[in-house]
Specification:
By secondary structure, this protein is an alpha/beta fold. A hairpin with a 2-residue loop joins strand 7 and strand 8. It is globular. It holds the Pfam family Patatin.
Length: about 325
Amino acid sequence: MKNKPFGILWVALAALILSACATVSPSPEPAPEAVPQAQVQNPDVPKTREPVVALVLGGGGVKGFAHVGIIKVLESHGIKPSIVVGTSAGSFVGALYASGMNSYTLQSVALGMQEADIRDLTLSSQGFLIGEKLQQYVNAQVKNKAIHQFPIRFAAVATDLESGEKVAFNYGNAGQAVRASCSIPNVFLPARIGKRQFVDGGLVSPVPVLTAREMGADVVIAVDISARPRSGAGALGWWGLLDQSINILSQQAIRAELAHADVVIQPSVQHADALNLDQRHEFLLEGEKVAQQLVPKIRAAIQGSRERLMAKAAQANPGARL
């Protein structure tokens, strides 16, 4: 009985503790942080890339305005190339587009351009246009960016006057490269770069599809605005004879290049005068019209390339589960 007071004390203490527990609310637990939904990634699935799409723009004087209409349609359908390659007029349009200019700005520039913007006459046995103003005009339009600074990979194709070899400029001064690509013999003076002279790329590669392939293109959309040789050439003047001669010489080269394209766009501008700026609206609208008709074919070519790349990746990983 001596321990009775201690027993009573322990009972009272226990009652006090229980009473405290009954009257004090427990602290709320912190809300759990949002956890992203669980995902399962299969490491065996082969990684594939999107097809590399190239837009190849051929030469043809002011008929190159058709290129602008084609670019407008492609852009409106979300088809944007990773590579742009151009010869002559195609290099001019291609450089502006590859520099980051959207199709509507490109159209505004094209329709606002005047002959005086690129005309610098001279008296020479090699030609009557120097080409310096053309070079300056292009550099002004691309904001003096060098080719390797363009957001889209670009190359301008020219011909080495001494060796006759194709040269694809993909680095450095954009205006200079376009000038070289556009230097039609006996019209422009040859463009001098370093110790070499260059003339129009259309002499060796009128529609430079193979250059696009060499740059890694999976899908090539080629635009051919060249004129076919015309009948009744006997009545042609000086420019007509030059144009006819170039057309005859280039047909075999054009066919050889176009055979390597996935989609060929040929606006009906072959009848047009390659130097007549008054027809620029006609050329642009014709480019839009024919490109719109070929959008399904272009999409199919890109999808076909995508499937081939997936199949190739699967072959490289035969145990993968797709």
